[in-house]
């Protein structure tokens, strides 16, 4: 019985490792939209007033994201360079939050890369579209833990973008 359980555990572990090690076709397709990018323009949306009153700032989020991108050697494009860059890659970070009377926040952090894309059936038509998106989830957190949780969420989601960017653009 113990031997069978050990074999089953081994098989499950191998399947899990295989599933997480190999990117899916969809992940490869999304990642390929990052290939050839030399950098991104960064847009951090204004945070809700309640969060601002509780000590969060748009500038603080901006600095944290800039630091993570800089550490990863991903260039942050100024407006002039961005306007000349094919696809106009824009990394948008939006913190959306609602606070209840008990001091609990429901929040989400959206991290998306937008690029100008063209329709294959009519190449004269182009539009801005999200070509990379971090997985989203609504979090519930007490006001006392908001800053810590949000900083970790930024690390995780911007870190996922950095990983995808680096996979598509090895040094």
In short:
With 171 residues, the protein is α/β, with parallel strands linked by helices. The chain is built from 6 helices and 6 strands, in the order H-H-E-H-H-E-H-E-E-E-E-H. A hairpin with a 7-residue loop joins strand 4 (104-118) and strand 5.
Please describe the biggest sheet, giving its number of strands, its sense, and whether it closes into a barrel. Answer: 6 strands, mixed
Number of helices: 6
Order of helical and strand elements: HHEHHEHEEEEH
Give me the Rg, rounded: 20 Å
Strand content: 25-35%
Can you count the beta strands? 6
Termini distance? 50 Å
Percent of residues in helices comes to: 40-55%
Principal-axes geometry comes out as: elongated
Provide a descriptive summary of the structure in words.
Helices cover 44% and strands 26% of the residues. The protein is of the alpha/beta class and 171 residues long. Helix 4 runs parallel beside helix 6. The protein starts with a helix and ends with a helix. Residues 8-22 have low confidence and may be disordered.
Descriptive labels:
171 residues, 6 strands, alpha/beta, 6 helices, elongated
Layout: helices, strands, pairs:
Elements: H1 2-21, H2 25-32, E1 39-44, H3 49-53, H4 58-71, E2 75-76, H5 79-84, E3 90-99, E4 104-118, E5 126-133, E6 139-142, H6 146-168
Parallel strand pairs: 1-2, 1-3
Antiparallel strand pairs: 3-4, 4-5, 4-6
């Amino acid at each position: 019985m113990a031997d069978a359980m050990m074999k089953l555990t081994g098989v499950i572990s191998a399947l899990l490792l295989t599933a997480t090690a190999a990117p899916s076709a969809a992940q490869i397709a999304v990642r390929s939209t990052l290939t050839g990018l030399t950098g991104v323009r960064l847009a951090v949306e204004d945070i809700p007033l309640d969060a601002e009153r509780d000590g969060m700032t748009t500038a603080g989020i901006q600095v944290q994201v800039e630091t993570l991108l800089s550490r990863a050697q991903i260039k942050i494009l100024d407006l002039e360079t961005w306007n000349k860059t094919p696809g106009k890659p824009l990394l948008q970070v939006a913190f959306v939050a609602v606070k209840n009377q008990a001091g609990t926040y429901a929040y989400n952090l959206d991290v998306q890369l937008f690029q100008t894309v063209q329709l294959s059936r009519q190449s004269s038509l182009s539009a801005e579209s999200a070509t990379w998106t971090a997985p989203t989830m609504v979090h519930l957190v007490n006001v006392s833990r908001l800053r810590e949780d949000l900083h970790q969420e930024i690390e995780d989601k911007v870190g996922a973008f950095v990983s995808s960017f680096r996979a598509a653009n090895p040094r």
